Amino acid sequence: MSNSTVRSAGSDVRPSRPARPGAPQVPGPRAERRRRRAREPQRQFRGVVSPQTLSTPHGKAIYWIVLVTVVALFTAVFVFPLYWMITGALKSADEFAQMPPTFFPKSIDWGVYKEAWDQLDLGLFLRNTLIYAAGAWFFTLAIDVTAAYALSKLRPVLGKLVLALMLSTLMIPPMVILLPAYLTVKDLPILGFNLLNTPWAIWLPAAANGFFIFLLKRFFDSIPRELLEAAQIDGASPVRILWSIVLPVSRPIIGVVSILAVVNVWKDFVWPLLVLPDTDKMSISVGISSLSAQMPQNVLMAALVIASIPAIVVFFIFQRSIMAGLTAGSLKG
C-alpha cells in the first residue's frame, strides 16, 4: 500500500495527543454531570418509607400488600352493613332470628319485598318524600344561589359580616337549634302561620343552608370579573347576568348542591318526625320507623332496602359530579 493511500485513509482520524504538562484538564460529560449532582441540594423526603426503598422489589411488594389490605379493610367496614341489610331481607323470619346468624341466606325469598311494599304502604311514603325532596331542591337553588351571587359579585354593604354569620351557624350542633326551629315552624314570626304537617316545614329550613351558600360563593369568586363587566357594558342587568352567564358556567357546583340537598331531605329522620306527625304526611324514614314494631325483621329489612335504592342510584350516577364540584373553584387560574 502506497504512502499516499495511507495518508488519505488516515486523514479523517487524528490520533489523540497527550495533554501538555501544566495544561488545564477539560472534564468530560460524565464528570460534569457528577459535579452538577454533587452541587445540587439533597432533597429531604418526609415519609415513613423513602422512594429509594419503594423502588426495590421488596419495597414494592410491601407497599402493595399494605395498600390492598387497608383498602379491603375500609371497604369491608363500609360495605358490610349494606350487605347485611340486603341479605337479611332475603332470609326467612326464623333464619333472620337464628343465633348465631348466617352470613348467606339458606333459601332466597324475593316475595318479602312485595310484602314490605304492601304492608308498609311504601308507595305513599315514597311519594311524600319525593315531593319534599323536589321542593327542597327548588327552594335551595332559588335562595342559596341568589344569596351566593349577591355576596360574591354584587358585594353589598356588610356582605363579609353576613357571610361570617352564615358560616357561624355551621359551628352550632343541629340538636341545639332543633327546638327553636320547631317553635318557629309552629308559629311563623310576623305572619303567624302554623306550618306543621305541611311541606313548607321541610322546604324552608332545608333552603337556609350556610354550607351550600359557601360552596356556591367560592365557585362564583373564580368566575372572571371581566366576563361580567362585558355583559354590563352591553346593558345586561344583574338578574340577566345571573341567568345567562353565571348559571351556565356554574353547572358543576349547582349539580353538587342539588344532589346534596335531595339526599339530605331523603335521609333525614328527626326533623320530619317532629314537624310531620300525621301518618299520611310522613316521609319514608319516619314511616318505616313508625310501623317497624308491627313488622317481622326480614320485612323491615326489605323496606329499608327499597328506601335506600334511590339514594344509592343517585350517588353512583353523579359521584363524579360530586367530586368535581367540591374541588371546583378551590384554585383560581
TrEMBL record:
It is found in: Cell membrane. Residues 126-318 form the ABC transmembrane type-1 domain. This is Carbohydrate ABC transporter permease. Belongs to the binding-protein-dependent transport system permease family. GO terms for cellular component: plasma membrane. InterPro entries: MetI-like (IPR000515), MetI-like_sf (IPR035906). The chain crosses the membrane at residues 61-86, 130-151, 163-182, 202-220, 241-266, 299-318. One of its GO terms (biological process) is transmembrane transport. PROSITE patterns: ABC_TM1. PANTHER family: ABC TRANSPORTER PERMEASE PROTEIN MG189-RELATED, ABC TRANSPORTER PERMEASE PROTEIN MG189-RELATED-RELATED. Pfam families: BPD_transp_1. Residues 1-52 are annotated as: Disordered. It comes from the Bacteria. It is a multi-pass membrane protein. Keywords: Cell membrane, Membrane, Transmembrane, Transmembrane helix, Transport.
